[in-house]
Amino acid sequence: MNNLLNYFDEETFKKLKSDPDLYQKCHRLVSVLFRDKRDKEGYPYLGHLERVSQKMTTLNGKVLGLLHDTVEDIPLVTFEDLVDFGVPLEVVEALKLVTHEDHPKGLSQEEKLKNYDAEIDRIIASDNSLAIELKIADMSDNFDPARLSKCSLEQQKWFQKKYAPQLVKLKRRWDGDSNAR
Q: Most exposed among 16, 77, 145, 168, judged by the fewest C-beta atoms under 10 Å?
């Protein structure tokens, strides 16, 4: 059984699953899955997913942008559920790369930064351009000065430490890939 059925009645799910417009059906999916979630500023979380999606350059990238927090943030939903739903394997493979592993609670900031650095290095080493582009789009939205200005000074400093060096590293890799094409 597809775990997405926990969020839809069977008829609605079948209708949604059969929608030939991949972007539209994934947008409708995340609209339901994230309807009660809020971002750090208290705005609907869907806005973050839409902004990340719009920064991506291909249809599969845009779909990945919509789905990038689904397995991580929505209880019970698995990669297999998304494949069964009709999400292309290329998108699911990139999604696997960008989905955070659960880290132990109570880590120091330095330990958290070290873990995040290792995650970014793993994504870069994968050579998966879709995953690399997604991380740039996601981090750019999380690190947007307009959004940061609504956070506490402590949160702003944390995001600066967490995202600034990783974003530089990812963009350097992305620009290198673009020059090679």
A: 145
- Report how far residue 86's alpha carbon sits from residue 20's, in angstroms, rounded to the nearest whole number: 9
Q: 138 with 52: CB under 8 angstroms?
A: yes
Tokens matching residue 51: 């902004």
The boundaries of the domain holding residue 169 are 3-180
Instruction: Measure the CA–CA gap between 160 and 181, rounded to whole angstroms.
Output: 31
Q: How far is C-alpha 79 from the geometric centre of its chain's CA atoms?
A: 13
Q: Which residue has the tokens 């050579």?
A: 127
Per-residue pLDDT, averaged over 103-129, amounts to 91
* Residues 77, 70: Cα–Cα separation, whole Å: 7
Structurally, how many domains does the chain consist of? 1
Task: Give the total residue count for the chain.
Answer: 181
- 137: CB partners within 8 A, 6+ apart: 52, 55, 56, 65
Distance between CA atoms of residues 108 and 88, nearest Å: 37
- What is residue 92's three-state secondary structure? helix
Number of alpha helices (DSSP H) and beta strands (DSSP E) in the chain: 11, 0
Question: In whole angstroms, what separates CA 4 from the centre of its chain?
Answer: 18
Can you point out the beta strands (E) in 15-119? none
Range 31-41 average pLDDT: 92
pTM of the predicted structure, to 2 decimals: 0.92
If we measure between CA atoms, which residue out of 30, 26, 25 comes closest to residue 15?
25
